[in-house]
Design brief:
Shape: elongated
Number of helices: 21
Helix content: 40-55%
CATH class of the largest domain: Alpha Beta
Largest sheet: 6 strands, parallel
Strand order of the largest sheet: 3-2-1-14-15-9
CATH superfamily of the largest domain: HUPs
CATH architecture of the largest domain: 3-Layer(aba) Sandwich
Number of domains: 2
Radius of gyration: 26 Å
Bound molecules: ligand ME8
Strand content: 15-25%
Structural class: alpha/beta
Length: 534
């Protein structure tokens, strides 16, 4: 994590032969939460996403649908945007690889590497799977009815022999190994990085960067009979978006990708950048591959859940919460709808929403009498006493110990811990910290029973409610990166109307340290509605 004041995060650019499903939304939600956290922390943020269009399989999809290619591409790009907009993903850039700005950039870098003798002409012979857009070795294939087929597409690959241009990856073997040694966190998580290093150490082979047979795509500047094939075309999207005044965003802070394309991002990409004299990205975060009800997500199996439909049926927050708090980034997982509802009910509806409701209702009873929940010296004492009771910290053993060790001032330690986790891109742990915290807040409320206290001790109730409101404010600030709309609602309920705006202008730290007065003036709808399991 560097100390510069810009932050640039990317998602993969998705193929448009289909509409994004929850698998794709996973990468986008990760990037979105990270981008928002950096923004509220005061960085100038760029968050790019987009579509990978120069692909043979998209041409084939258009033909299958009986559509003219450009009409098809426009329609699909619009559909992709609709999905991200529907989920509230706040990207700053959306790139289509058919755009002229991208074609120009790719041709420029191809020429640079060609002039540096890093791209040369050769002959390629191999088994090519159109579905994967990749040449396959026999080891990659499986046998079906005596024929070797692609395990993902169950089709025998085509035998292709053609003139191609190759990128001299082998030349960068040592430079890459040195780079990995100097940047031990380049690829996260570590076990994925170990695989990349081991693969590199076995010896890198040059790879093909063009095709003679493909007609749709970016023509090589030094041989117009060939079009760029996949990697130059796809990877350089990350540089295309850093032009026209945005040059200072490069190198990217973070590429979010899944493990299937990690080799291309962690090996090919740095070498291609070195060849064209660009700086290398800071980190690559590798996500797991998730299945639905134990099966690979696929249109034909009918398990490709539409993320917008899902969040309209249930809630957007449920999708984010379930995906980001259930699975550690980097581990495989299975998407289970029932589990998603249970997680939402317990963490957001019960532990969070109910507590907000209790505080609002009781504060209203109090404010009927005297107005505002304000600060007073007594509050610090209540908070300190509560914090000092170690049995309050048993919601999650690991989180508790770490939190307690972090700092003697508990107020700062919670915010600090979340910041630490967010900066390490450990989203699950950042969320766990807040939910462990909410568990404790509920225990605190149950122990103090302000709903009983209100009958005989108005001042004591005010102290307890102030403490709870202050803590909910802190939780709201820490969870804003994940649930911006709902946390803005929470702030409004607490009488903090300007928070959304202040956060968007990078004032997280300022707000965390601020002493607030809570003007709770009306009862609102529940923050998170409990959902029934069908
Ligand atoms: O690979 N689980 O595009 P793509 C987790 N165009 N993540 C998933 C997923 C699943 N089941 N399914 C998809 C490409 N993803 C290239 C990328 S980048 C320069 C070029 C996510 O449409 C995951 O992030 O096949 C993966 O990297 C991406 O979607 C692949 O999308």
């Amino acid at each position: 994590m560097s100390e510069k004041n810009t932050f640039f995060v990317t998602t993969p650019i998705y193929y448009t032969n289909g509409i994004p499903h929850i698998g794709h939304s996973y990468s986008s939600l990760i990037a979105d939460s990270i981008a928002r956290f950096q923004k509220v922390s005061g960085k100038r943020v760029k968050f790019s996403t987009g579509v990978d269009e120069n692909s043979q399989k998209i041409v084939e999809s258009a033909e299958k649908d009986g559509k003219e290619i450009w009409a098809y591409l426009d329609e699909m790009a619009a559909k992709h945007k609709e999905v991200w907009d529907g989920l509230g993903i706040q990207y700053t850039d959306f790139i289509r690889t058919t755009e002229p700005r991208h074609h120009e950039l790719v041709r420029e870098v191809l020429q640079k590497s060609f002039d540096a003798w890093d791209i040369y002409q050769g002959e390629y012979e191999g088994k090519y799977c159109v579905g994967c857009e990749a040449f396959k070795k026999d080891d990659d294939l499986i046998e079906r009815d005596g024929v070797l087929v692609c395990p993902d597409h169950l089709k025998a690959p085509d035998l292709i022999k053609e003139k191609n241009y190759f990128f001299k990856l082998s030349k960068y073997q040592q430079q890459l190994e040195d780079f990995y040694a100097k940047n031990p966190e380049f690829v996260m998580p570590q076990d994925r990085f170990n695989e990349v290093i081991a693969f590199t150490k076995r010896g890198l082979e040059d790879f093909s960067v063009s095709r003679e047979t493909n007609k749709f795509g970016i023509k090589l500047p030094f041989d117009e009979s060939q079009v760029s094939y996949v990697w130059y075309d796809a990877l350089f999207n990350y540089i295309t978006v850093c032009q026209n005044g945005d040059e200072d965003f490069w190198p990217a802070d973070l590429h979010v990708v899944w493990k299937d394309i990690i080799r291309f991002h962690a090996i090919y990409w740095p070498a291609m950048l070195m060849s064209a004299w660009y700086d290398l990205p800071e980190n690559i975060l590798t996500t797991w591959f998730f299945t639905v009800d134990g099966q690979k997500i696929s249109k034909s199996l009918g398990n490709a859940i539409d993320p917008v439909e899902f969040s309209e049926t249930y809630s957007k927050e449920m999708l984010t919460l379930y995906l980001l708090s259930t699975f550690n980034i980097g581990q495989d997982g299975d998407f289970d709808q029932k589990q998603a509802i249970l997680t939402y009910n317990s963490k957001l509806a019960n532990n969070f929403g109910n507590l907000v409701n209790r505080v609002v209702v009781l504060a209203l009873k109090l404010t009927e009498k005297s107005g505002i929940l304000d600060t007073g010296l007594h509050n610090t004492q209540v908070e300190a006493e509560w914090y000092a009771a170690p049995d309050m910290w048993n919601a999650d053993e690991q989180v508790n110990r770490e939190t307690l060790n972090l700092s003697s001032t508990w107020m700062a330690s919670y915010a600090h811990m979340v910041k630490l986790r967010m900066n390490e891109y450990n989203l699950k742990s950042a969320l766990d910290t807040s939910f462990a915290f909410l568990d404790m807040l509920n225990k605190f409320a149950d122990e103090k029973e302000p709903w009983k206290m209100i009958k005989e001790d108005e001042e004591g109730t005010r102290e307890v409610l102030y403490t709870l409101a202050e803590w909910l404010r802190q939780v709201g600030l820490s969870l804003y990166a994940f649930f911006p709309e709902k946390m803005s609602e929470l702030f409004i309920k607490l009488g903090l109307e300007d928070y959304n705006e202040l956060l968007l202008s990078g004032k997280l730290a300022f707000l965390q340290e601020k002493q607030e007065i809570f003007k709770i003036t009306q009862k609102w709808e529940a923050l998170f509605q409990r959902l029934e399991i069908n």
